[in-house]
Amino acid sequence: MTRPAWSGYFSTFQLILLALFSALIVVAKIVLRTPLQLPGHTGIFWMAIMLVATRVVPRRGAASVVGVTSGIMAAFLGAGDFGALNTFLSYTAVGVGVDLAMLLLPNMENLPQAALVGALGHTGKFLVKWVIGVVAQAPVGFLALGLARSIAGYIVFGALGGVLGALTLLALRRAGYFAYLAEKK
Amino acid sequence: MLKLRWPARPPSAGKSHRGETRWFTQRLVETSPLRAADPRTKLALALGASLAVMLPLPRLGLFLAGYVLLVAWARLLPEVGRHLWRARWVLGLLFVVDFWLVGPELALTISLRVALLTGVFALFFSTTTPRELGLALEALRLPYRYAFSLTLALASLSLLEEEWQAIREAQAARGVQPGRGLRELWRQAGDLVAFTVPAIVLTTRRAWNATEAAYARGFDSPHRRPYQSLRLSRLDYALLGVCGAGLAVLFWGGRFLP
Hints:
The complex is a heterodimer. By secondary structure, chain A is mainly α.
């Protein structure tokens, strides 16, 4: 069986690590629910783990892999209120959004940069809802009205998740995690 | 070619060793005739049905009649109904607002389109096991290593859930819990690191153990051949033929259709 040229872009360990981080996101989204009942509040741990994944596997596309993988897993488990397609696209959009934002803001251990990347990445989920509404030809005014409240939540919790991700990375560095990881590659 | 028999319950189903009900169970409909179909066929059916959102109302109605028949034959009506029930408030609100602002035709069209998108992938996800998904991804030319890691992650969900629960309980015992208000949550951002750091470290260790175990079993061998593989059956050809022809007629049926 011949392999595509891009199949060696990530090592096996990196792929397994990214897949397990994706599983961690899906689990955290359900287990670590905060008592807040605001749109997008689950993004705190989601974005934090996503940002940590991009630093632990420092290759372009790592966040997209996490997004696609967690999207497939969440769709498999029937998560989300608008069916598997919306769930899969939402998770994927967050991953792609983080990768795109990291082209401009690459330092995830810098708190303001991480907060911005978290906010931009989390907004990708909001954009999927918007695009599905537009594809279904729902009136734009209604969409704007319905989604205006949630976009603030997505930005705030995405930024908070970014900050948590940066703090996690700093804590991991202090604990010698990256030295441990260097031995594993 | 091996005849595959899938376990009646996914490995993640049931109770944990502590006796808690696990949340990460896939809702697999074992009695569905679609269980015998190739996962690639089911994926094609779901994707094809998603395209039907582009049809105008009369043709969308025709499509939905056929779709309901397919779902009823596949014994997936309760599954699709469950998805629609979860979206009932948004669907209802969408219908009422569209009816009020534009008119009944647009309200019906949009509600049906969103309802279709909400339930359509139950055809795939309610009748496919994680292992079958891995085989399908491999058959679709995705690198084996990616398909393997995805299957592994799906099988690890319950273990990760137990780890998260243990971390949460340990931190709660130390008085660290996510705040009840937004302001409190901002102040606590530093404390929440106590949740993420152990989870990341435990996950990395698990990933490394899985990689070593896989390599010890000859993973990534240059002459690897799959132990199991998928093959399209008559049922798959029949499903693809009938559904493909139906969609083609609806999209390009010209003036013979409403």
